Amino acid sequence: MVDNAIVQILALREIDAFAIMILSIITFFQQVGFASLEAGSIRAKNVRNILLKTVVDKLVCGVFFYCLGFAFAYGQDWKGLIGTSFFALEGSGGDGQAYFPVLTFFFFGYVFLITSTTIVSGALAERANFVAYLVYTPVMATIVYPLVSHWIFSGWLSKKLLNCRYLDFAGGASVHLIGGMGALVASAVIGPRKGRFRDGRVRHLPGHDIMAVASGTLMLWFGWLGFNVAPSFLRGDSKMDIAARALVSTTLAACAGGLTSMAVCAVAHHWSQSGRPIWDLHATYNGIMSGVVVVTSISPYIEGWGALILGFLASLVYLGISLLMVRLRIDDPLDSTAVHAGAATVGLLAVGILAQPDYIRHYRPDEERICGGWIYTHSGNQLAVQIIGTVVIAAFSACFSWITFWFLGRFDLLRVTAREEEAGIDNIDHGGPAYPDFEMRMWQETVGTPNPEPDLEAFGRVGSTGFDTVRSSFVRALHGDSLVANRDSSPATPSNQAVSLVSNEANGMANDIRSNE
């Protein structure tokens, strides 16, 4: 017997498949944003490494998802746990059946998968062995993402628990929650970057290119419009209504998230440290990201005011988790856990409170019973189902991630050596620095070779982000001055921060060169 999920895939109309293809291609453009964001958020000496990781996960995911992952995710259901057909896309067409429905769905699933794996790379930045990523990515492509997707799409979570099915419109659980939990486990197991927490103090390790961070975030926002709208064309009788609501909800949540983060950081800095607000770019952009993540699971099911509320809440959750991670001495360079796992959890639970039953029926007109949010149904059944599913998925992702990273650590495959980390992974493993002219100037400054003072502005150097300063202020207020220290005792002006950054990176390279003389 062919299950209903496969029937749904095979019944995909050409016009709907075309819409999904276009929106999936737009979603793929997110990867350009991730590459730019991650590269700009780390130090210049590790840029080649993070960019290669960002590309390699697409390559590895493509092969493993084709061979196994797609079948496990969307194949014929076995006991609500795993799919058992479409291995290597076998049976995707022929004998009078068109090929395009299954092939379209393969690419659709693939772009969602690579988003979940890319989230983890940010948490491993600047100290992970390249082999570790080559091992973890197949685990995501064949086990974590496929099984979670199957549970939601046609497995046990799609059945009627308490007369309600688990609702996740566009991957709040199957993409962002599993990616965020993987990032949390990766950060905890691999340990902080060298110098991040020293002698009980928090030290900033600022990224090297704020323009890359800004442009990357805006590209991600653009890609997310395709990400959150694409599932609208999978089913339902009012596809354009569904797509339009998803588009508006994504926009409003992003706006609310960005404004909230910017305002909270400005007020917090005014209250805790300098007496004047700091309008922080980094926190604003992460607030935008939190906003688009939080509505991923619920975007077509809510009114505009609901999207604004969720963007506001997601931003607060991001800021709170980011502060907590520092307090726990867990180094997540891009705040992947706070942005993805934190915001996704808020959105998944909000389904049980804010989801409008009539809007759900637009998307699922064939279902006999539709649950919805508590404010409309005055029933907690949908919320209970959302809690059960979210906890199980988070635990499943965390467990498999921990097993994988523990195994890698056990065989010394998880982290680079201290020498590599100090000198820069690019210089040891990737044939040289990403910016050779700039790196040579830094080295000349360090070893004393006569050279004009480098033009820091020309190379886009940045110091500690405003939110780092705000976060440190919170930690100082809660736990005393001894917990937080800047790189030096000089005033935290942009020029001092930039010179400090150049000096620290150059010292690592120069020491490595001298050791080989």
UniProtKB/TrEMBL annotation:
<feature type="domain" description="Ammonium transporter AmtB-like">
    <location>
        <begin position="20"/>
        <end position="435"/>
    </location>
</feature>
<dbReference type="GO" id="GO:0097272">
    <property type="term" value="P:ammonium homeostasis"/>
</dbReference>
<dbReference type="GO" id="GO:0005886">
    <property type="term" value="C:plasma membrane"/>
</dbReference>
<dbReference type="InterPro" id="IPR018047">
    <property type="entry name" value="Ammonium_transpt_CS"/>
</dbReference>
<feature type="transmembrane region" description="Helical">
    <location>
        <begin position="210"/>
        <end position="227"/>
    </location>
</feature>
<feature type="transmembrane region" description="Helical">
    <location>
        <begin position="383"/>
        <end position="409"/>
    </location>
</feature>
<keyword id="KW-0812">Transmembrane</keyword>
<feature type="transmembrane region" description="Helical">
    <location>
        <begin position="58"/>
        <end position="78"/>
    </location>
</feature>
<feature type="transmembrane region" description="Helical">
    <location>
        <begin position="131"/>
        <end position="153"/>
    </location>
</feature>
<dbReference type="InterPro" id="IPR024041">
    <property type="entry name" value="NH4_transpt_AmtB-like_dom"/>
</dbReference>
<comment type="similarity">
    <text>Belongs to the ammonia transporter channel (TC 1.A.11.2) family.</text>
</comment>
<keyword id="KW-0472">Membrane</keyword>
<feature type="transmembrane region" description="Helical">
    <location>
        <begin position="308"/>
        <end position="326"/>
    </location>
</feature>
<dbReference type="InterPro" id="IPR001905">
    <property type="entry name" value="Ammonium_transpt"/>
</dbReference>
<feature type="transmembrane region" description="Helical">
    <location>
        <begin position="173"/>
        <end position="190"/>
    </location>
</feature>
<feature type="transmembrane region" description="Helical">
    <location>
        <begin position="247"/>
        <end position="271"/>
    </location>
</feature>
<feature type="transmembrane region" description="Helical">
    <location>
        <begin position="17"/>
        <end position="37"/>
    </location>
</feature>
<protein>
    <recommendedName>
        <fullName>Ammonium transporter</fullName>
    </recommendedName>
</protein>
<feature type="compositionally biased region" description="Polar residues">
    <location>
        <begin position="487"/>
        <end position="506"/>
    </location>
</feature>
<feature type="transmembrane region" description="Helical">
    <location>
        <begin position="98"/>
        <end position="124"/>
    </location>
</feature>
<keyword id="KW-1133">Transmembrane helix</keyword>
<feature type="region of interest" description="Disordered">
    <location>
        <begin position="485"/>
        <end position="517"/>
    </location>
</feature>
<dbReference type="GO" id="GO:0008519">
    <property type="term" value="F:ammonium channel activity"/>
</dbReference>
<dbReference type="InterPro" id="IPR029020">
    <property type="entry name" value="Ammonium/urea_transptr"/>
</dbReference>
<keyword id="KW-0813">Transport</keyword>
<feature type="transmembrane region" description="Helical">
    <location>
        <begin position="338"/>
        <end position="355"/>
    </location>
</feature>
<feature type="transmembrane region" description="Helical">
    <location>
        <begin position="283"/>
        <end position="302"/>
    </location>
</feature>
<dbReference type="Pfam" id="PF00909">
    <property type="entry name" value="Ammonium_transp"/>
</dbReference>
<keyword id="KW-0924">Ammonia transport</keyword>
